Amino acid sequence: MTSPAKRRTDYRLTFLVLCVGVASFSLLQSMVNPVLPTIQAALDTDQATVTWVLTAYLVSASIFTPIIGRVGDKVGKERMLVVALGALAVGSLLAAVAGSIGVLIAARVIQGIGGGVLPLTFGIVRDEFPREKVASAIGTSAALLAVGGGVGLVIAGPLVEALSYHWLFWIPMAMTVVAAIAAFVWVPESPERTPGKINVGTAFLMSAWLVALLVGVSQGHHWGWGSAKVVGLFVTAAILLPVWVLAETRSKEPLVDMKMMRIPTVWTVNLVALLFGMGMYSMFAFVPQFLQTPEVAGYGFGLSVTESGLMLLPQTIASFIGGVAAGRFATRFGSKNLLVVGAALTAIGTFGMAFTHDEIWMVLVETTILGLAFGLAFAAMSNLVVAAVPQSQTGVASGMNTNIRTVGGAIGSAVLGTVVTSNLQPIGVPTEAGYTHGFLLLAITSTAAAVVAVMVPVVKAKTHVVPGPQAEWEAEHDVATSASASQP
């Protein structure tokens, strides 16, 4: 039973709590990347092993994001939000005090459970906020993923130089503890619930094919793309994925409803998410490396980790502005149009990175364009998916969209890493052609994302509603999609 204090909670306070949780998760996605060499030296391990600090987090978040979202749909989103934030806090504490690489990797697995924060946030916003505020709130919280990713890259270097890499975990831990307590005290429990039990069998199948795919993709560069381990993982994923889909289709209580996944708006936006994720996460990973390349290589600027992070500050600001403005733009122009613009701007920015990167101001302009694109597209994708599904499936639908975007990022980063490092100079850095070809590849995937975005169906308001439970969703659906129903 919801307490009177929770019932009286202003939705703006709820939104503040949700934003702190999303920001904490987002920071943990990116802050560790620039300082892996520091962690490797501090924990006396090798490069192949330290990459599991990233892989473990990626795989765990990919598994738990849709699962936590679905559990929230069934047992209560506020309750699962506290669980997800608690996992982030516990994982961050364990990572901060870890004295060995094994403990740190285990801590990152626990942190990945916090991936459920994002779909739970979208569900709570849809359940609790005034309808006219839903689009802007979802847009802002979705954009925080891109903003947090940029902020993590900006502050990682200065933080490690001033203190130590342990503070990369102490700070998110403090944020998530505060957010978890605030969520427990103030965030109201969801009125919408999906009856039934959690399908453990299909959850296991989904986890198995995701682990096989993501471990293969993430470690392929180190193990060799043609190695027995990598090929075996890809074959396993290729077998288990259709088995999982078949199991979900035949299940009376599916974890992920395949009928929902076949909704035209949902599957087209998910395809955009896959292609878009390939570009966004890869740019987060490789632009700092490009900026840090010594000028003796014939390109690059020889910046330090701190300096390269600060160079991405305009991108981060642009992401935040795009996300905050997306709600108002969606009301006027439609979320579909914002998604097309975001994907197109991503293509423009990556084409620019491929061919005009000789001066620092060029890179600043291009990354700022990318930041604006990320903010707009993240908000638009989230609003389109949330509006296209029944309220009781908000968590799992947005969780799968986030998950697919993460899978795209893993694939894109792996492919870009192979392309960029295919030819190395005698000093051990990639040739300029490697980066040119890599950025060009991302420009092509971003262009494809824009083309698919044009094909996203626009939901039109219904003129007749049949009485019954579905009618309640259709009435809500019409209101929720009004911000995304503008024709292109």
From TrEMBL:
The chain crosses the membrane at residues 51-69, 81-99, 105-125, 137-159, 165-186, 198-217, 223-246, 267-291, 311-330, 337-355, 361-386, 407-427, 439-459. Its main location: membrane. Keywords: Cell membrane, Membrane, Transmembrane, Transmembrane helix, Transport. Pfam families: MFS_1 (PF07690). It is a multi-pass membrane protein. InterPro entries: MFS (IPR011701), MFS_dom (IPR020846), MFS_trans_sf (IPR036259). The keyword Secreted does not apply. The keyword Methyltransferase does not apply. It is found in: Cell membrane. Residues 14-464 form the Major facilitator superfamily (MFS) profile domain. Signal peptide: none annotated. It comes from the Bacteria. This is MFS transporter. It comes from Nocardioides endophyticus.
